[in-house]
Automatic annotation (TrEMBL):
Function: Bifunctional enzyme that catalyzes the enolization of 2,3-diketo-5-methylthiopentyl-1-phosphate (DK-MTP-1-P) into the intermediate 2-hydroxy-3-keto-5-methylthiopentenyl-1-phosphate (HK-MTPenyl-1-P), which is then dephosphorylated to form the acireductone 1,2-dihydroxy-3-keto-5-methylthiopentene (DHK-MTPene).
Matching Pfam families: Hydrolase
Originating organism: Zosterops borbonicus
The EC number(s) this enzyme carries: 3.1.3.77
Cofactor note (record): Binds 1 Mg(2+) ion per subunit.
Originating gene: ENOPH1
Residues given in the record as Mg(2+) binding sites: D16, E18, D212
GO BP term (any one): L-methionine salvage from methylthioadenosine
Assembly notes: Monomer.
Highest taxon in the source lineage: Eukaryota
Protein name, entry field: Enolase-phosphatase E1
Broad class of enzyme this protein falls into: hydrolase
Named cofactor requirement(s): Mg(2+)
InterPro entries from the UniProt entry: Enolase-ppase_E1 (IPR023943), ENOPH1_eukaryotes (IPR027511), HAD-like_sf (IPR036412), HAD-SF_hydro_IA (IPR006439), HAD_sf (IPR023214)
GO cellular component term, pick one: nucleus
Length: 261
């Protein structure tokens, strides 16, 4: 690693989050445990609110679809009033959320509740989005050089905006020209990168994609997008073939932009 020249035709830099701008440990050791530890308290506090009831309704529907799965946790309807009945239903929701998370499921119902819980946690200062220290200075430099900067993450756009809006570096949302999540397509499919290029209004080879995941890098390359693989503490190791094949960086400062003259 060292200096990696950015090809002259690149006009936009597309960034992954987990393992690229943000330590994987932040997601695994801060965000997810926060949900597990606080879901019961959150449901008790917000149960009467329309948003919370919608979230529970989605989870209940998901639980019905999951009923044939091993270890599935049903969520009953409230069959009366009273504190005891409410506790019984809330406990079922808590157990269902814990079960889904133990299987690392990505259901819309689970993601929606998590998103609303994280929003509350960021807003109250219980959680701050962690950003590697080289990220913000590098992005400011890229923008000064006329680059557009976008995010592409499997986390929802809402979750992305929370992470960067309430980050250890303050609110840095103004550094990004746009956000993409898996609604545009999976990160391991080359078609997703063609859609992003069309959405940005450029060719795929005008984009440089930074990710820590070789399968994503491979999909982007198939779409004729430039790629660099990011090596960060805590990231999964690369094979020798991957190390010799991909351009590697361990810090955003290693990207060398062509002079704009």
């Amino acid at each position: 690693m060292g200096v990696l020249p950015v090809p002259a035709e690149v006009r936009a830099i597309l960034l992954d989050i987990e393992g690229t701008t943000t330590p994987i440990a932040f997601v695994q050791e801060t965000l997810f445990p926060y949900i597990k530890d606080n879901v019961k308290e959150y449901l008790r506090a917000h149960w009467e609110e329309e948003e919370c009831q919608r979230d529970v309704g989605l989870l209940r529907k998901q639980a019905q679809e999951d009923s044939s799965l091993d270890g599935a946790v049903p969520i009953p309807l409230e069959s009366g009033s009273g504190e005891e009945e409410l506790e019984r239903v809330i406990q079922a929701v808590v157990d269902n959320v814990h079960w889904q998370m133990s299987l690392d499921r990505k259901t819309t119902a689970l993601k929606q509740l998590q998103g609303h819980m994280w929003r509350a946690a960021y807003a109250t200062g219980h959680v701050k989005g962690e950003i590697f220290e080289d990220v913000v200075p590098a992005i400011r430099k890229w923008r000064e050089a006329g680059m557009k900067v976008y995010i592409y993450s499997s986390g929802s756009v809402e979750a992305q905006k929370l992470l960067f809006g309430y980050s250890t570096e303050g609110d840095i949302l103004e550094l990004f020209d746009g956000h993409f999540d898996t609604k545009i397509g999976p990160k391991v499919e080359s078609e997703s990168y063609r859609r992003i290029a069309a959405s940005i209004g450029c060719a795929t080879n005008n984009i440089l994609f930074l990710t820590d995941v070789p399968r994503e890098a491979n999909a982007a390359e198939e779409a004729d997008t430039h790629v660099a693989v990011v090596i960060r503490p805590g990231n999964a190791g690369l094979t020798d073939d991957e190390k010799s094949y991909y351009s590697l960086i361990s810090s955003f400062t290693e990207l060398f932009l062509p002079s704009s003259t």
